[in-house]
TrEMBL record:
Dol-P-Glc:Glc(2)Man(9)GlcNAc(2)-PP-Dol alpha-1,2-glucosyltransferase that operates in the biosynthetic pathway of dolichol-linked oligosaccharides, the glycan precursors employed in protein asparagine (N)-glycosylation. The assembly of dolichol-linked oligosaccharides begins on the cytosolic side of the endoplasmic reticulum membrane and finishes in its lumen. The sequential addition of sugars to dolichol pyrophosphate produces dolichol-linked oligosaccharides containing fourteen sugars, including two GlcNAcs, nine mannoses and three glucoses. Its main location: endoplasmic reticulum. Signal peptide: none annotated. It catalyses: an alpha-D-Glc-(1->3)-alpha-D-Glc-(1->3)-alpha-D-Man-(1->2)-alpha-D-Man-(1->2)-alpha-D-Man-(1->3)-[alpha-D-Man-(1->2)-alpha-D-Man-(1->3)-[alpha-D-Man-(1->2)-alpha-D-Man-(1->6)]-alpha-D-Man-(1->6)]-beta-D-Man-(1->4)-beta-D-GlcNAc-(1->4)-alpha-D-GlcNAc-diphospho-di-trans,poly-cis-dolichol + a di-trans,poly-cis-dolichyl beta-D-glucosyl phosphate = a alpha-D-Glc-(1->2)-alpha-D-Glc-(1->3)-alpha-D-Glc-(1->3)-alpha-D-Man-(1->2)-alpha-D-Man-(1->2)-alpha-D-Man-(1->3)-[alpha-D-Man-(1->2)-alpha-D-Man-(1->3)-[alpha-D-Man-(1->2)-alpha-D-Man-(1->6)]-alpha-D-Man-(1->6)]-beta-D-Man-(1->4)-beta-D-GlcNAc-(1->4)-alpha-D-GlcNAc-diphospho-di-trans,poly-cis-dolichol + a di-trans,poly-cis-dolichyl phosphate + H(+). It comes from the Eukaryota. GO terms for biological process: dolichol-linked oligosaccharide biosynthetic process. The lineage of its organism: Eukaryota, Metazoa, Ecdysozoa, Nematoda, Chromadorea. This is Dol-P-Glc:Glc(2)Man(9)GlcNAc(2)-PP-Dol alpha-1,2-glucosyltransferase. One of its GO terms (molecular function) is dolichyl pyrophosphate Glc2Man9GlcNAc2 alpha-1,2-glucosyltransferase activity. Pathway: Protein modification; protein glycosylation. It comes from Pristionchus entomophagus. Belongs to the ALG10 glucosyltransferase family.
Length: 398
């Protein structure tokens, strides 16, 4: 409708501002745009520095050679419609506003005005979740051509399909009945396993030296905090019940696990320490690098887990557990603390939550726009130089 057209126009205006102020490829764009330009010239050799598949570059070739960033302006209205469609599977309340808030998540919106893969990856994943099994499997397959980790979302869809069609009275028979609709997902799983095998046991395309998997349990906890900070208006009214939920004696083992994860399973990637152009660099320097401050985070983490479990209580428990498992599969092996990894799980989570009031939703949207604008303006108008790269402007972003 008209709103999605407005979204596209506003997005394209943001992109045109970025083109004026930052005309050259910036940060990861250097690889993405470089590869796309190569395709535009009919050269199909692969840059080994790129670690994700070429789905986005292939789409850019027909119409967007040299205007790469505008491709995301085409995806954004579609992303809004896909978000609305996905949300309507969970609730009938606040569909448009919640979807708008979700796609205005600052880290997503900021990545989307550059030639990054996040909007297309999210769009294909949301569409896949909103469709019946056969077309869904096609979209999941397409989403894997943009980002390999989307395999975890295909697993979530297939597992929830299997469980929801299983009847307690006849487990075997009802499971067998759902097999035809699971065949495409079994094929996706087998082809993914084949890809990993042929790729030498790694899911990373190209140079995997910077992407060795670790057990980064803290990353999952930071995701819970990140999610609650972005939906704070919906949490405020629930504070008393959240605190009493968190203080249950039965949660003590969970608290001890959180403390252990923050103490022993926080990893610092060389990129995190070396690159002061990102928010996590400063979070690490000011907070996470101190073991004491990091352990202190166990309290907000515990509160955020309670908040999310209360807010999502209307969603069936098995779906919540599968979501948690898929999110863990994506985040825990990731060595680098990177907010862009949180985008898809956050948007899926946000779109599934029933929202309490119109006022909270408006406040959430306003809060997202303000935070986005602040970082975006820093990115555009507060560049700086590194002493070892004089004359090259560095810009601050998520």
């Amino acid at each position: 409708g008209p709103l999605s057209i407005i979204i596209g126009v506003v997005h394209a205006s943001l992109v045109s501002i970025v083109y004026k102020i930052v005309p050259d490829p910036y940060m990861d764009e250097i690889f993405h745009i470089g590869q796309t330009r190569r395709y535009c010239r009919g050269n199909y050799t692969w840059d080994p520095m790129i670690t994700t598949p070429p789905g986005l570059y292939v789409l850019a070739v027909p119409l967007f050679c040299g205007r790469d960033r505008y491709l995301n302006s085409l995806f954004y209205p579609l992303l809004f419609l896909a978000a609305c469609r996905f949300r309507s599977r969970f609730t009938r309340t606040s569909i448009g506003l919640s979807s708008l808030s979700a796609i205005c998540l600052p880290v997503l919106l900021h990545s989307s005005v550059l030639f990054y893969t996040d909007p297309l990856s999210l769009l294909l994943t949301l569409l896949a979740f909103s469709l019946p099994p056969i077309p869904s499997s096609v979209f999941f397959l397409l989403s894997l051509t943009v980002r390999q980790t989307n395999i975890a979302w295909a697993f979530l869809y297939a597992a929830s399909l299997l469980i929801s069609s299983t009847r307690p009275s006849s487990i075997i028979r009802s499971s067998l009945a759902s097999i035809p609709s699971l065949v495409p997902f079994i094929m996706i799983g087998l082809s993914f396993i084949t890809f990993v095998y042929l790729n030498g046991g790694s899911i990373v395309l190209g140079d995997d030296s910077a992407h060795q998997p670790v057990l980064h349990l803290s990353q999952l906890l930071f995701f819970f905090l990140f999610s609650c900070l972005h939906i704070w208006p919906h949490i405020i009214s629930l504070i008393p019940s959240i605190v009493s939920h968190a203080l249950r004696p039965s949660n003590l083992p969970l608290l001890l696990m959180i403390i252990m994860a923050l103490y022993s399973f926080y990893h610092t990637h060389p990129y995190l320490l070396a690159d002061n152009r990102h928010v996590p660099f400063y979070l690490h320097r000011r907070i996470f690098s101190s073991t004491f401050l990091r352990l202190f985070l166990s309290v907000p983490v515990m509160l955020s887990i309670s908040s999310l479990s209360l807010l999502s209580s209307s969603t069936p428990r098995f779906i919540r557990l599968l979501f948690l498992l898929s999110t863990a599969i994506i985040l825990i092996p990731a060595h680098l603390l990177e907010f862009r990894y949180f985008i898809t799980p956050f948007v899926i989570l946000r779109l599934s939550l029933p929202t309490s009031s119109l006022f909270s939703s408006v406040l959430e949207f306003a809060s997202n726009v303000i935070v986005f604008s602040f970082v975006f303006l820093l990115f555009l108008f507060k560049p700086y130089e590194w002493s070892h790269e004089p004359g090259v402007l560095q810009r601050f972003m998520w």
